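Internal ticket - ligand job 205, glutathione:
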Amino acid sequence: MKLLGRADSLNVRKALWGLAELGLTAEREDRGGPFGGTDTEDYLSLNPNGLVPTLIDGETVVWESNTILRYLGERSGPTVFSGRDPAERAAIGEWMDWQLGALNPPLQTVFIQLVRLNEDRRDAARTAAALDDVHKQLAVLGRSLPSDGPLLGADVTAADVALGVMLHRYYALVAEPKADDRVARYHARLAGRPGFAAHVAIGKP
Ligand SMILES: N[C@@H](CCC(=O)N[C@@H](CS)C(=O)NCC(=O)O)C(=O)O
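stdout (structure tokens):
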């Protein structure tokens, strides 16, 4: 398999961690950010968004990092990682959709404000409102987590990978985290995975 995307993109990190959890490997090629190469006709024919990551597996091309995770989990038969039956797949899918639709948008705003924009272009009120929303969303996660142990009973699923990269970003960005203890323990548990250490916690939010 080939994974197109720069190693410091959070969504590429997500795919790399997923590969590691499943014991799979893919040859990674830099695309995006300073490497460019995402606005060519060739790349757009693989991923019409011109974003990273893109996974190529023989004749199969997959974009959207959460779909890449599900694809990797299902590629060699049903796995705990992506769910073995409709009920497990639904439980995993709920959190993956929630990551993309509810948690990522406000966290992305905080990231852009604090990391991407120069200080003179930052909007403190916008950052505060987005952070408030992040905390509302993390409260949803907090009350859904067991007091200790995995989110869905399994060691690691695609949902943990999707949520884990978000928690990495949150704890890396926010000087005084206000997420509840269950969320902090969940983050610590995921941060102990070798794939997280190798691909996600690379010194960038
Ligand atoms: N929903 C998409 C988002 C992909 C995305 O926004 N990728 C960013 C990097 S994390 C990107 O391609 N940015 C432009 C670039 O790196 O050139 C996914 O999860 O794969």
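Auto-summary: The chain has a mean pLDDT of 97. Residues 86-116 form the longest helix (31 residues).
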